[in-house]
Amino acid sequence: MTKEKEKYLIDGEKGKWEVVIGLEVHAQISSNSKLFSGSSTKFGAEPNTQVSLVDSAFPGMLPVINEFCVQQAIKTGLGLNAKINSYSVFDRKNYFYADLPQGYQISQYKNPIVGEGKITLDLPNGTKTIGIERLHLEQDAGKSIHDLDPSNTYVDLNRSGVALMEIVSKPDLSSPDEVNAYIKKLRSIMRYLGTCDGNMQEGSLRADVNVSVRKEGNKELGTRCEIKNVNSIKFMQMAIIYEAQRQVELLEAGKSIDQETRLFDTKKNETRSMRSKEDAHDYRYFPDPDLLPLNLNKELIENIKKNLPELPDQKKERFIKDYSLTVYEANVLVSEKEISDYFEEVVKTSDIKLSKNWIMGDLFASLNEKNISISQSLVTAKKMAQLVDAISSGIVSGRTAKEVFEIMIESGEEPNKIIESKGLQQKSDPKELEKIIEKILSDNKDKVEQYKSGKDKLFGFFVGQVMKISSGKANPQLVNQILKDKLKK
Amino acid sequence: MSIDKDKIKHVSKLARISVDEKKIDDLTKDLSSIFKFIEQLNELNTDKVKPLSSILNEPLRSRKDEINDGKIRDKILENSPKKNEEFFVVPKVIE
To answer: Is residue B32, in this structure, part of any structural domain at all?
Structure first.
């Protein structure tokens, strides 16, 4: 396939259009307390119980920065191969909203803590590098609840002041699939680093999606619209498809695109203008007088760099080298830290090829079916290793192992115990098998004659008979070997 | 920067400060002269001067990542004009 053919294009009435996408991802920093106060960040607490006088913006309260959140931002920046800025400034972004008690969000504008970096995406047709524009620290807002009262909105400030990293990509993404790969890779890197749990259901990872379109081959960027606060990959993709189509239709009808903020309505599957945000881009940023500039010393950055864990790309290279995996297999196994840890624990003691096939085959199928993560599976790495060992040492056949596995995923029982209690061990005693085989051969003398006179296909019949008599427990390799010997004579 | 009536209206809207229509002319005059005064600073060449965010020459103070605040819901909600047991209650805001 040529590159041209793989391009994601929209077929308009008057030609083909490219989509240009940039993402502003808001990632909640994993920390115990908030960015500028000592309240807890724990998800799911009673409303307004994790709110200090700072978070609720009582007069005269002063923000004091959480040093761990700063380190988490540096760590993430290093994980994105980005430049860490030794000097950064906190600014006030001014706007009024009921869930923003300060009347401004403390953010970073001209001088963010992290500058340009990059992420490498593994796409079906190769890799693509997506530029990172910047990463900055900012406060999250509170939560407005609209459905508890017909005429009022309720405000919960538990989230107010929680530390976020806003990670801004360059407009390098050009299809919904690339957006999917980008979010997954970014999430994976942050989870490896332990800087953000990436839990999209709990809102730890959300994105503003910037979409514009241009005629195929055109170098100039079109006017973009920003779709606010989309909280799942699926919705991001749906919003992009809708929005790009909308823009193409407008432009082909000779109209122009208004640069505006839009909202994605998940029920109607459409984007629409947010009129309340008309003045939204007039934020009147200025340096927060309550906070001094943030100066980072080189030792701190170097120290964090030295202690970075192995990241997905490095792990992928190592897996390919150490375990002779294909690029595809390595990508799958490193996509989540939990999966790669599981794999490594199994292959520490057990056969690599069998382990990888079982993990990527039966185990993944069971996770999908139950819609659970690998760490929630009752089949722990230790139990999986035991099952793989039972196969490679000939205690059970691959087919029986599947039977054992079915029991394991439901009960979490140890495979050795299941094999023992159900008497599933393979018959691997040559003398015992020889007896069975000799009986079959003498009971079927006619077929033996036919086989010897050239009807090779009958070999399968003899194997089948052995399996039938042994209730499928005869060791297949051994049966083959003995049968071959006996039939030669 | 010139200050005209529209600018005054725009800024007052952003700042949620209601301005009496009768006072707009005076405000425009006052603010224009204030800006004119400040803009004298633009005559200085600052090409080689780094922007200064703070005049204090000391590092930003930080804290450890410890939970030592919160759990004061009653206090937090006490001054709210409208509330219930758990929430601040505000006029309906919906997109």
So the answer is: yes
